[in-house]
Amino acid sequence: MSVKILAIESSCDETSASVLADGVILSNYIANQTVHEQYGGVVPELASRAHQENIVPVVDLALHKAGVRKNELSAIAFTQSPGLIGSLLVGSCFAKSMALALNIPLIAVHHMQAHVLANFIGEHKPSFPFLCLTVSGGHTQIVRCDGPLDMKVIGETLDDAAGEAFDKSAKLLGLPYPGGPLIDKYAAEGDPNRFKFPEPQIPGLNFSFSGLKTSILYFLQEQREKDPQFTENNMADICASVQHRIVSILMNKLVKASKETGIREIGIAGGVSANSGLRKALQEYGKKHGWNTYIPKFEYCTDNAAMIAITAWYKYQAGEFAGLDAVPGARAGF
Ligand code: KG4
Ligand code: ZN
């Protein structure tokens, strides 16, 4: 009999459910919350309420699409941390209730570990040791993986995350939240070398993005004094130049990490790995440095439950189960 796992992701503003059978994703359903757009960022209280409304239909859709009945499930997985506590509570309480009602095991998953393991969905899987650059709205990490559940953060941001750098730059340009995908869109038409933004000199494998944000702010203020329409008239070139700098900061540290560890299995993960400039750069650098490169499918880059399901599959095989007393927000094993 095959092992079937239902996984739930509710750490931020996406309610998602996925069904996996023996390591293969059968369904991955994501409900996006559009309510936050008007506020320029995720409002935690509204996110929790939207999760409450979405969770039952999303789980039903994921089971239906997979053709799996509740009583066929072998385990229920949920995102334990990190995330917004009210959002995590909805997913964790739902998962616990379902595991209790069906009398099957519960699996608690670390959201950042799951982003990394999104690279292990499908046939083209990295081998170990593997280096992953995880870039999301809340985190920027270089993770060394010696096994699917054996991970260590070897570099991380000292201030803003890469996704925040995209979103805050977009805000300075008057673009709506979340601005990352919009910068990507405008950048496609622009010249990445037209404006030069500084690259911070941070020792080791850590990152910093707050200086970039400040330099963009001063640059725009200066240019707008000369031409009030500067931003509107140069949107594509500004976006391409900002994206170019964020991508070069990320890639230069990844090259350094590969040289220091001798690892050439290299992947990216997290919401920012949906960025076309970063995807292209990974392929180019990979060719230049002789890396085997990995990028999750687009739908597995931003928050989704399929990555929770694949992590739960490894945990199921390792016998790593959680009790009903598992506390959301607390650090789950990374
Ligand atoms: O992993 P994710 O979906 O949620 C978190 O766990 O944070 O990442 C969301 C972040 C946001 O900052 C969003 O602007 C960014 O990923 N993002 C992008 C793109 N798509 C999503 N940034 C740049 N280019 C994109 N195409
Ligand atoms: Zn995420």
How is this fold's topology laid out?
Elements: E1 4-9, E2 14-21, E3 24-32, H1 44-66, E4 75-81, H2 85-102, E5 106-110, H3 111-117, E6 130-135, E7 140-147, E8 150-156, H4 162-172, H5 180-187, H6 210-226, H7 230-233, H8 235-261, E9 265-269, H9 276-289, E10 292-294, H10 306-318
Helix pairs in contact: 1-2, 3-10, 4-5, 4-6, 4-8, 5-8, 8-9
The chain binds 5'-O-[(R)-(carboxyoxy)(hydroxy)phosphoryl]adenosine and zinc ion (ZN).
In what range is the share of β-strand residues?
15-25%
N-to-C SSE series? EEEHEHEHEEEHHHHHEHEH
Rg, Cα atoms, Å: 20 Å
Largest sheet: 5 strands, mixed
SS-derived structural category: alpha/beta
Number of helices: 10
Helix content: 40-55%
Bound molecules: 5'-O-[(R)-(carboxyoxy)(hydroxy)phosphoryl]adenosine, zinc ion
Q: CATH first level of the largest domain: which class?
A: Alpha Beta
CATH homologous superfamily classification of the largest domain: ATPase, nucleotide binding domain
Work out the count of structural domains: 2
Mean pLDDT: 95
CATH architecture of the largest domain: 2-Layer Sandwich
Oligomer: single chain
List the uncertain runs: none
Global outline: globular
Task: Give a description of the structure.
The protein folds into two domains: 4-116 and 301-318, 2-Layer Sandwich (Nucleotidyltransferase, domain 5), CATH 3.30.420; 125-295, Nucleotidyltransferase, domain 5 (2-Layer Sandwich), CATH 3.30.420.40. It is 43% helix and 19% strand. The protein is built from ten helices and ten strands. The protein has helices spanning 44-66, 85-102, 111-117, 162-172, 180-187, 210-226, 230-233, 235-261, 276-289, 306-318; strands at residues 4-9, 14-21, 24-32, 75-81, 106-110, 130-135, 140-147, 150-156, 265-269, 292-294. Strand 1 and strand 2 form a beta hairpin. Helix 1 packs parallel to helix 2 (85-102) and helix 8 runs parallel beside helix 9 (276-289). The two termini are 29 Å apart. Bound molecules: 5'-O-[(R)-(carboxyoxy)(hydroxy)phosphoryl]adenosine (KG4) and zinc ion. Residues 12, 136-138, 163, 166-167, 178, 180-181, 184, 270-272, 274-275, 302-303 line the site of 5'-O-[(R)-(carboxyoxy)(hydroxy)phosphoryl]adenosine. Zinc ion binds at residues 111, 115, 136, 270-271, 303.
